[in-house]
Amino acid sequence: MSCLALNASYEPLMIVPSRRAIRLVLDRKAEVLEADAHRSFRSVREHHPCPVVIRLVRYVHVPRRFRRQVTNTFLFARDGYACQYCQRHKRELRNREFLTRDHILPISRGGDNSWENVVTACSSCNHRKGNRLPQEAGLRLLSRPVEPNHVQLVWAVRRVTPIQAKYIGMFFGEDAVPLEIGGRAPYQLRRRGGVRRV
Length: 198
Ligand SMILES: [Zn+2]
Prior knowledge:
Bound molecules: zinc ion
Helix content: 10-25%
Strand order of the largest sheet: 2-1-4-3
Number of strands: 8
Largest sheet: 4 strands, mixed
Distance between the termini: 25 Å
Structural class: alpha+beta
Mean pLDDT: 82
Radius of gyration: 20 Å
Number of domains: 2
């Protein structure tokens, strides 16, 4: 069980383990906004319901450097686990194919690891592109890659509860609510035959 931590401004910040959330509450660094009445933890004197959503008492500035880290886990999640050139989802790859990180402007030609320069590519497309720009290799990107919101990435790879999703939706808008609990996916891929939810 994990807890959604909001900044003092109500901006969803991260998912933290319950134990960490409880520590923050007991240290009076956070207040409980939502709790699970069916689960409880014990402090020195009493039982408390387990926090599901907490809000930090003081505003925390999250450094941009932290937000910009591009791991493959987050990169593949941003791109809906689909190759951004041939549009195939991870499930549609053939036996020896796998998802890779492609640098649009290759590193050897001065490209970097920024969110704007990396995309998910299947191993076949990555191999075909080699040390070239997409247009030089006759490939076309599905969309221009952008830096995603950190929290959107977190929920793309982790599950959130409907109550936690409510707070995410309150801050970012209904469109930001994760797909599996009824919202629209933050990233959509264009496919033959229309727009597919990922
Ligand atoms: Zn591909």
